[in-house]
Amino acid sequence: MKTNPKIDDKFLKYVEEYGPDKIFIMDIAEVEQEFLDKVHLPVIWIDHHELAERSKVHYFNPRKHGSNEPTSYLCYQVVQQDLWIAMAGIVGDWYYPKELAEQFRKEFPGLLPEHIATPDDALFETELGNLIRILAFALKGSTKNANTCVKILTRIQHPDELLKSTTPAGQYIRRQIKDMYEEYDMLLKEALKQKVDKILAYTYPSTNTSYTGELANELLHRFPSKVVLIGRKKSGEVRCSLRSPKAINIRDIMQAAIQGLPGAYGGGHEQACGVCVKEEDFPEFVRRLEENI
Predict the structure, then answer these.
(1) Rounded to whole angstroms, how far apart are CA atoms 27 and 46?
(2) Which of 78, 153, 155, 262 has its CA 20 to 30 A from that of 227?
(3) CA angle 126, 128, 211 (to 5 degrees)
(4) pLDDT in tens, 1-12
(5) C-beta atoms surrounding 236 within 10 Å
(6) Tens of pLDDT along 178-191?
(7) pLDDT tens digits, residue range 50-88?
């Protein structure tokens, strides 16, 4: 189910439909107590957003111990398998585990050059980054198409199948995302034309696919000292991804900027977060951001 980043009682019908023995919740910032009270199953919640207080759940968050590794990294520490999938998820989460990077280089030569030492360089200057984009695009679009791609991806045994289309499964995935690559490149070119002051802000009309997170990440890589705001207009709202350099806590600035704006909401991490505001309030929202950066 594609939805807002919150688990609430709307998910109860899916629990009933699937009939699981356990429920695993990963990398979701908010889980409502009402859901936990009603689900009557063991729930394991692995996350790295702000700490929460909940009952009736097995809750794992590295912030309890003063660190902030992404959920993808924590899960790999448990399963210890499929390193190439793990590295795609971990680096895609803007985290660079040096010990896993060395192991990855040995197992998959050529995908992550030795001079690469930061997550954004790995994302946008390596074959590992290309692999991450392929996987991300395969999970976009309609839920039906995404589920089909997930089924096909379970047959992939090596990253070359996706990077070089060496098998029918890899060829299928590449065909499915071909139009997404073209659409993304067009949006990136338009975003790069925007005037950059305190903020690089770019909005685009609704398409079948959202690229706000990917665009925001790439533009932050290209403009590392700027705040990046990418918005997608849909149903009278602008749904945005925000990124900032480490010196700026853009999440707190964003939360202050939406105060008093009807229906506005947002959340996430200190340097990477999302926000949704009504289209008529968007200029005021941007003005407040600029004023407080």
Answers:
(1) 6
(2) 262
(3) 90
(4) 455 568 999 999
(5) 9
(6) 999 999 999 999 99
(7) 899 999 999 999 999 999 999 999 999 999 999 999 999
**What is the average per-residue pLDDT within 260-287?**
94
Q: Which residue has the tokens 């190439």?
A: 84
Q: Tell how far CA 20 is from the center of its chain.
A: 26
pLDDT at 33: 97
Q: In the chain, which residues fall in CATH 3.10.310.40?
A: 192-292
Report the alpha-carbon distance of residue 15 to residue 38 in Å, rounded.
Answer: 11
Q: Which has the closest alpha carbon to 200: 277, 282, 286?
A: 286
* pLDDT recorded at residue 3: 52
HEC readout, the chain: CCCCCEECHHHHHHHHHHCCCCEEEECCCEECHHHHHHHCCCEEEECCCCCCCCCCCEEECHHHHCCCCCHHHHHHHHHCCCHHHHHHHHHHCCCCCHHHHHHHHHHCCCCCCCCCCCHHHHHHCCHHHHHHHHHHHHCCCCHHHHHHHHHHHCCCCCCHHHHCCCCHHHHHHHHHHHHHHHHHHHHHHHHCCCCCCCEEEEEEECCCCCCHHHHHHHHHHHCCCCEEEEEEEECCEEEEEEECCCCCCHHHHHHHHCCCCCCCEEEECCCEEEEEEEHHHHHHHHHHHHHHC
Q: Say yes or no: domain 192-292 is CATH 3.40.50.720.
A: no
User: Residue range 103-117: average pLDDT?
Assistant: 96
Residues 134-177: pLDDT tens digits? 999 999 988 899 999 999 999 999 999 999 999 999 999 999 99
- Looking at residue 222, its amino acid is R
Q: Which positions ≥6 away from 82 have C-beta within 8 Å?
A: none
